[in-house]
């Protein structure tokens, strides 16, 4: 009981402290802007730990953060094998193939107004569909190993990427295109010097959306069959044996991998589209 | 209207490519069967066979359409519209979980967004996490939610709805915060000169001007909620729902069943997004915000 009260007290104290920080005269500073969400995150973990221990919540319902951390540290090699299988082989391969194919397709269909008019609504439509549902079919076609996961990822990222790139390629003003025409620039010169650079913000938007989709596709496809490794496989088998600390450890890996993947793409974006207003501080 | 012809062309092209792909993908099986029966197939016989197998690697479009009709309209005509083999019943299981979860997730998302907009501490503390959580494959926790809730005795609709709610929650929070902040400084200043209370400025300025953002978020949210409900049906071992149809289809190699469940899910998603879009158009028109 004391643990419950202690954790609630910690929560109240952190809340008041955060409130004070946010209203204080340093609230605009970089340190406070980092500290406030960090305090919130720590509070969640402390309250979680306190409530789970104080109320004796059984492990099969919600393991404490400390139990998850212990399991995480104890099975690093297993988590690494799963990470390589799902993220590197499945998600990353599929991501590169899918976004690359979509990018090339977008540049090709961009030359034809007819194709653009036809493919853009269809692509938008398909992008909203539950494409993870193709996972059982693709697992049947490409086998249980990572190839089928990569195929699901390709199917998931292709259309969002295509739609974004096509929209990006249309993202130049008439004045700019006229200027290129007065310099008698060829189609390819206009493409490489004007339209592709101008398309980069939209392209990176598509690439960022695709990072999350790639991980979701690779993990969910493993629920339909996989070799005895992989994050989705481990989650579904660990859930079956009620080893919830293992499930949470895998979720931690997924969260870290997702954030790192997204962060990496965002960093490349900053370097490539440094000229865009949204990147200026 | 000028894009009707291009769209139709693309759709027809997809169907043609599909037929063309079905022939080589199913040809191996047809040849094996013929070799086992000690017959040889002519090309036309081979093509006819590849498009009419019971368990093809890639069913032809018309086979999927026939299966869809057989498990929906035909069963209704036979008076068994809600039998266990009917896709209507399974679609309803999925749809009810989707809608319940979507309603919960949207309501919670709006509340959190209002809190974030009006409380600076909450904004600084929660918003970075809300944005970061969008980069995380949340769907991975679906099996755990199902099994944990099952072990405390909650079954059926609610666990799936919780996954749907979770998935539709974050897009709504992010979109709604953007929307509630969309009034510009001069509009807020105007209300200040009218001596409007915080309440007034919320109901008369912030909430109305958030509507376009809100509906964009709703369209993302309802599509995510449907995916959540479908994935939520997988770990319970293929009992009911469209996800269960896909899983049992993949267990028994019933490819046509998988494809028809997939198409039912796609139609459902299109209908849900379409309905939200229609409400958006009607509402924005009444509010005079039509683009």
UniProtKB/TrEMBL annotation, chain A:
Membrane topology: Multi-pass membrane protein
One Pfam family in the UniProt entry: BPD_transp_1
Subcellular location: Cell membrane
ABC transmembrane type-1 domain: residues covered: 99-272
Presence of keyword Magnesium: no
Record-annotated membrane-spanning stretches: 34-52, 87-109, 121-144, 150-170, 202-226, 246-268
Keyword line: Cell membrane, Membrane, Transmembrane, Transmembrane helix, Transport
Protein's recorded name: ABC transporter permease
Native source organism of the sequence: Sinisalibacter aestuarii
Organism taxonomic ancestry: Bacteria, Pseudomonadati, Pseudomonadota, Alphaproteobacteria, Rhodobacterales
UniProtKB/TrEMBL annotation, chain B:
Pfam families attached to this UniProt entry: BPD_transp_1 (PF00528)
Domain of life where this protein originates: Bacteria
Protein's recorded name: ABC transporter permease
Domain named ABC transmembrane type-1: residues: 87-280
Ranges annotated as spanning the membrane: 91-117, 129-149, 161-180, 213-236, 256-279
Family assignment from sequence similarity: Belongs to the binding-protein-dependent transport system permease family.
Subcellular location: Cell membrane
Organism: Sinisalibacter aestuarii
Main localisation: membrane
Membrane topology, as annotated: Multi-pass membrane protein
Keywords: Cell membrane, Membrane, Transmembrane, Transmembrane helix, Transport
């Amino acid at each position: 009981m004391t643990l419950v009260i202690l954790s609630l007290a910690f929560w109240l104290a952190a809340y008041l402290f955060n409130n004070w920080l946010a209203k204080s005269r340093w609230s605009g500073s970089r340190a406070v802007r980092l500290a406030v969400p960090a305090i919130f995150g720590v509070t969640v973990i402390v309250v979680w730990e306190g409530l789970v221990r104080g109320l004796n919540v059984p492990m099969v319902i919600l393991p404490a953060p400390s139990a998850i951390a212990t399991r995480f540290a104890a099975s690093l090699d297993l988590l690494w094998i799963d990470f390589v299988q799902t993220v590197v082989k499945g998600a990353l391969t599929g991501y590169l193939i899918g976004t690359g194919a979509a990018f090339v397709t977008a540049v090709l269909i961009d030359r034809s107004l007819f194709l653009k008019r036809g493919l853009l609504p269809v692509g938008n439509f398909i992008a909203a569909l539950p494409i993870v549902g193709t996972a059982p079919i693709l697992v049947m076609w490409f086998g249980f190993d990572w190839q089928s996961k990569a195929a699901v990822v390709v199917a998931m990222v292709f259309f969002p990427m295509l739609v974004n790139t096509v929209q990006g390629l249309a993202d130049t003003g008439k004045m700019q295109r006229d200027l290129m025409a007065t310099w008698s620039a060829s189609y390819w010169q206009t493409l490489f010097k004007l339209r592709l650079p101008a398309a980069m913000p939209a392209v990176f938007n598509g690439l960022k959306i695709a990072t999350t989709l790639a991980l979701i596709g690779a993990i969910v496809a493993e629920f339909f069959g996989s070799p005895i490794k992989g994050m989705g496989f481990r989650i579904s088998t660990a859930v079956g044996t009620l080893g919830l600390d293992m499930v949470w450890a895998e979720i931690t890996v997924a969260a870290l991998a997702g954030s790192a993947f997204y962060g990496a793409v965002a960093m490349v974006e900053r370097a490539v589209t440094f000229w865009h207003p949204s990147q200026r501080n | 209207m000028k894009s009707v012809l291009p769209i139709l062309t693309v759709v027809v092209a997809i169907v043609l490519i599909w037929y063309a792909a079905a022939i080589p993908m199913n040809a191996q099986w047809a040849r094996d069967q013929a070799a086992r029966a000690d017959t040889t197939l002519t090309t036309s016989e081979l093509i006819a066979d590849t498009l009419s197998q019971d368990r093809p690697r890639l069913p032809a479009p018309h086979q999927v359409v026939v299966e869809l009709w057989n498990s929906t309209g035909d069963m209704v005509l036979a008076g068994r519209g809600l039998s266990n083999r009917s896709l209507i019943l399974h679609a309803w299981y999925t749809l009810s979980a989707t809608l319940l979860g979507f309603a919960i997730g949207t309501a919670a998302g709006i509340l959190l967004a209002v809190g974030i907009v009006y409380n600076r501490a909450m904004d600084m503390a929660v918003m970075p996490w809300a944005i970061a959580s969008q980069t995380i494959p949340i769907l991975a926790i679906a099996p755990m939610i199902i099994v944990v809730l099952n072990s405390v005795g909650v079954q059926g609709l609610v666990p799936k709805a919780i996954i749907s709610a979770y998935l539709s929650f974050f897009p709504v929070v992010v979109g709604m915060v953007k929307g509630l902040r969309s009034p510009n400084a001069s509009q807020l200043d105007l209300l200040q000169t009218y001596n409007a209370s915080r309440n007034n400025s919320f109901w008369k300025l912030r909430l109305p001007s958030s509507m376009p953002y809100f509906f964009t978020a709703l369209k993302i949210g309802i599509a995510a909620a449907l995916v959540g409900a479908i994935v939520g049906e997988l770990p319970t071992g293929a009992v009911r729902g469209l996800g269960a149809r896909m899983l049992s289809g993949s267990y028994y190699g019933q490819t046509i069943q998988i494809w028809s469940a997939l198409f039912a899910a796609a139609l459902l998603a299109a209908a849900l997004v379409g309905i939200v879009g229609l409400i958006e158009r009607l509402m924005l028109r009444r509010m005079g915000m039509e683009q």
